[in-house]
Amino acid sequence: MHKILGSFVVVLLMFWCSTSFANSTEEKLAQAILDENIVRINVLLRQVDDINAVRYKGKALLNFAQENGKKDAAEFLISRGAIEQKIEINWVNSLVSPAGVKFALSNGGSLQDQVNNVPLLHFAANLNRVSVVHELLKQGAKPNTLDGSGRTILHVFARIRSNQGLLLAINNQTRESIKDNNGLTYKSVLLGSATGQNLLSRLNRPAASQSEYLTATQLAANARDSRALRYLLLATKGKHRIKINPNLLTPQNFEIALILNRYAKVKAERFIAGKSFYQVINDNFDAGYYLVAMGFNPTPKTQKDLNIMADLCQTHDLMPMLSAGGVTTELSLAQLQVNSIFDFLIQNCSADQDMMLNQLSAQEELASKIIPDDLILQGYLPGAWQSSDKKISYQFNSDNTFVHTFTSSGSKKSVEGNWEVVPAGVELKFAGSGATEFLMVSSLTEEKLKGDFGWGKYQLEKM
């Protein structure tokens, strides 16, 4: 037992000595290189089996000498067989900070390198590492470098809504007119969202072109950004580049389809691809309210429509939707041998007559389920309204003038202009500046007004 223990201690001591010696030799060699003490380097190298295997803080001796500018020491090491060893650059780690960029470039990295086929500038920009992008540009990276999608860093910073990144790219002369492979400039990318639109307005750049507005409409529709789309369609007077297809009339896109109908005059028929009204609501009942809000006539035209109606009315109240679409209970369908819609529903539905009649009283309310009726809006709006925090108020006058009062920097300010009821809300035209603002109304009573401006949602109460 003592012999085994003694042997273990000897082996352990030998290991400790060799490790200590190796570390000591490396440190001494490093110091000798820094001192450029050639004699000392020569003596220490006699203790090393392979000059190229020695590392000091992870670096080969020749690399260490060169990085520290020790030319004489480097030449001597080369004469003894030292070979310069290329350091493997990990750009993912290096693009964390400006210092990492400097280290990578000083150790054989190139500005033309890529990370997963993405240029260094774009990789850093995607992560919103503005200081790293700045360092790459200082080191000579070209600001107009394109990625595989034809985008500059302006496009990337626009997509992630980075104000600092956009300013950096613009100040470094990145060309603002460059279009990506989808024909989008960075301004089109910003215009495709409400937050991007606000950001673009703060950049104080030349106004976007009509083409940039048009290409942005598809982005806004794809993102289901109804606020951005309303703004774009108002700016282009209803022109757009949105692909109209039945997929737009889905629960996720109801509001987008409605906005296209109201602002771009896209007819409801284009959203249903030849289907009848009843075929559509059989698949998605709520779609019917949006169709009638677009002016679609829900009158059944075929026996198949009547059959679907008879099935649906077992589980759904059809009368409010029909009333909203202008179908009266007395409507006769002689070609379908129906004396009146009301009689048909009474005969085929489980609902009783009293319930059906009660539903008719809600006609006006349900007709404005999607958009308040323009006449109701025109009648209710005149008067004084204010926000719950009393920081914002509007005085809408019956002669279609208004006064807008708001608190800014601790003091109250007022602006005047004219108001006009337009589809889905109110258009405000400010006197003097000529600026126009759109107030979308989502619900309206005699006492409360709800909706949103371009800058956000609001609720006003009658004063």
Summary of the model, kept short:
The protein is α+β, with helices and mostly antiparallel strands and 463 residues long. It has helices spanning 2-35, 38-45, 61-67, 71-79, 91-94, 98-106, 120-126, 130-138, 153-159, 163-171, 186-191, 194-203, 210-222, 226-235, 254-264, 277-283, 287-293, 303-312, 319-324, 341-348, 353-360, 363-367, 374-380; strands at 55-56, 59-60, 114-115, 118-119, 383-387, 392-396, 401-408, 411-422, 425-430, 436-444, 448-453, 456-462. The protein has four domains: 26-83, Serine Threonine Protein Phosphatase 5, Tetratricopeptide repeat (Alpha Horseshoe), CATH 1.25.40; 93-221, Ankyrin repeat-containing domain (Serine Threonine Protein Phosphatase 5, Tetratricopeptide repeat); 275-367, no CATH class; 374-462, Lipocalin.
* Mean of residue pLDDT values: 80
Low-confidence stretches: 1-22, 360-373
Compute the separation of the termini in Å.
Answer: 99 Å
Radius of gyration: 37 Å
Strand order of the largest sheet: 5-6-7-8-9-10-11-12
Query: Major sheet: size, sense and barrel closure?
Result: 8 strands, antiparallel, barrel
Tally of strands: 12
Overall tally of domains? 4
**Portion in beta strands:** 5-15%
Note the overall shape.
elongated
SS summary, helix count? 23
The CATH homologous superfamily of the largest domain is called Ankyrin repeat-containing domain
Structural class computed from helices and strand pairing: alpha+beta
- State the helicity in percent bands: 40-55%
| CATH topology group of the largest domain | Serine Threonine Protein Phosphatase 5, Tetratricopeptide repeat
What's the CATH class of the largest domain, please? Answer: Mainly Alpha
